[in-house]
Design a protein that fits this description.
Number of strands: 7
CATH superfamily of the largest domain: Pleckstrin-homology domain (PH domain)/Phosphotyrosine-binding domain (PTB)
Radius of gyration: 25 Å
Number of helices: 6
Strand content: 25-35%
CATH class of the largest domain: Mainly Beta
Shape: elongated
Structural class: alpha+beta
Largest sheet: 4 strands, antiparallel
Order of helices and strands: HHEHHEEEEHEEH
Strand order of the largest sheet: 1-2-3-4
Number of domains: 2
């Protein structure tokens, strides 16, 4: 039995797997990182402003102490549920496009990560509603195999879909070296 150095792969291992493809010799570069369009934050911010204004008006002006405490607790609950939680949800969802893959991350307590290799993307579709056109965003659908990945409310969706297409074409045009 031949002795093996733990830091250097053996010739048998290289012979079994073949040489490393040329596409792997290039480093993976982050092309763009983004979140959903910021227009998703308008309603939570308006709720926080309205709750702060109503709390400032009502709390302290009610006749009994328990009423003031109940109004403050109700205002805090409304601010938490309809203001802070949607903002935190928006902050925890991120999409990253690299030269090799698309990475979708989400989740606050439990993190979810989905990766789509650009070599598997066969079709990129883009759609925009009237409201999305006014905001400069849109939905991008990536078809890979029998699966599809929908990126909702992507800021600058036309540019993003072109980046997906270009990255996928570059990945497909690089022939593997066997």
């Amino acid at each position: 039995m031949a002795s093996r150095d733990s830091g250097v792969p053996s010739a048998d291992f290289d012979a079994a797997l073949g040489p490393v493809p040329a596409s792997f010799s290039r480093p993976e570069i982050v092309v763009v990182r983004f979140r959903r369009h910021g227009s998703r934050l308008v309603l939570p911010v308006l709720v926080l402003v309205a709750v702060a204004a109503a709390t400032g008006y009502w709390v302290g002006g009610l006749p009994n102490a328990w009423m003031n405490i109940a109004a403050a607790a109700g205002a805090a609950l409304l601010a938490l549920l309809f203001g802070i939680v949607p903002i935190l949800i928006w902050l925890t969802r991120r999409t990253t496009i690299t030269t090799r893959r698309i990475i979708l991350r989400s989740g606050f307590f439990v993190r979810h990560r989905t990766e789509v290799m650009l070599a598997r993307v066969r079709e990129v579709k883009s759609s925009r509603t009237l409201a999305q056109r006014m905001r400069g965003s849109g939905d991008v659908v990536l078809l890979h195999g029998i699966d599809r990945t929908v990126l909702s409310d992507v800021p600058g969706s036309e540019g993003s879909s072109m980046r997906f297409r270009n990255s996928a074409n570059e990945t497909m045009s690089t022939p593997p070296v066997w």
